[in-house]
Specification:
This is Acyl transferase. This protein is an alpha/beta fold. Helices cover 30% and strands 22% of the residues. The two termini are 37 Å apart.
């Protein structure tokens, strides 16, 4: 992946659009059905965004390849068809993940990384589990690991890390963080707590503000961090406080009108469109089912999900 910055992002994205139009038959058919001439697409807001639901019913691939490095699969709900993201180049994923993480948090080797992802560990192809594994491998700390509901053991590990002044990242699905916080209140001064959303029907739905307030009170935190990612994306966005996300270098977000999917703007409130330049061999232009508010500085909030969209584990309802 080339070095990406604010100055060259649009040029890279437009080149990738043309590459995917001519080498992804599904995306080309979708673009043609919208009567969009690829030659006329000159700006990011003119690019057609593929509905994310296509990942449920098609193998979204750019290029003629069969050698799959990874297959990420969403949790979905009972009876629902999961999304599948076929990843041709695992190095692209790892590069986007690590470059993005380092830009916000520094090198993973500085942290002990602990993951509370019980519902995701039940599946073999969860992108969030793979993300945590990559960060743990790059960390190399002896206390890195996944936990289910071993609250006493985890509390002792965190207390020891805190006593040693070790920087720690506690990454967790929302319901597991709430369960652990209820069972093990303690001061966490050297630990970043990062929620990834997701109640999975385990608890009453809380707003993000309620979740963060509870976690801050239980663990004496100044802020709770958040991660925005999903099966269909290889890049992430992070929020260091209050659920205000900043996309990493390989990602940009746009907003589309709820009633007119071709009305796409750089800021405002509506449905979230994501450009993910790491999705070279799938589709880089995704129309999600999340409702968002994008500010003038390109930071964004996730406000909830479209009414007809199935609940998915990587999103936290806040409406």
């Amino acid at each position: 992946m080339p070095d990406i910055n604010a100055e060259n992002f649009a040029d890279i994205a437009l080149s990738l659009f043309r590459f995917q139009y001519y080498n992804n038959s599904l995306y080309r058919q979708y673009t043609d059905a919208l009567h969009i001439d690829p030659v006329s697409v000159k700006t990011l807001t003119q690019i057609p965004f593929l509905p994310i639901s296509f990942f449920k019913t098609y193998q979204v691939k750019t290029g003629d390849w069969t050698d799959t490095a990874l297959v990420f699969e969403s949790s979905g709900t009972t009876g629902d068809i999961p999304s599948r993201h076929y990843v041709h180049d695992g190095a692209l994923y790892e590069s986007a993940l690590l470059d993005g993480f380092k830009s916000v948090y520094g090198d993973p080797s500085e942290y002990a990384i602990i993951a509370l992802l019980p519902s995701y560990l039940e599946r073999g192809n969860a992108s969030l589990v793979h993300m945590a594994k990559v960060l743990m491998e790059k960390s190399g700390h002896a206390d890195c690991g996944f936990y289910l509901n071993e609250w006493d053991k985890l509390k002792k590990v965190l207390q020891r890390l805190e006593a040693n002044g070790q920087k720690t990242l506690l990454l967790g699905v929302t319901f597991a963080l709430l369960d652990f916080a209820e069972a093990a209140p303690m001061p966490l001064k050297n630990t970043i707590v990062m929620e990834t959303g997701g109640m999975k029907g385990r608890r009453e739905e809380w707003t993000r503000e309620q979740v963060h307030t509870y976690l801050k009170n239980q663990w004496q935190l100044h802020d709770v961090h958040s991660e925005y990612g999903m099966t269909e994306l290889l890049s992430q966005a992070y929020a260091v406080k209050d659920g205000i996300f900043k996309a990493t270098a390989s990602m940009q977000v746009l907003v589309r009108d709820i009633n007119d999917p071709l009305d796409v703007q750089k800021q405002g409130t509506g449905c979230l469109n994501v450009i993910d330049l790491a999705n070279v061999y799938s589709c880089a232009f995704i129309a999600t089912e999340d409702i968002c508010r994008i500010s003038a500085d390109s930071s964004f909030e996730v406000l909830g999900r479209m009414d007809h969209a199935a609940l998915r584990g990587c999103n936290l309802m806040v409406l």
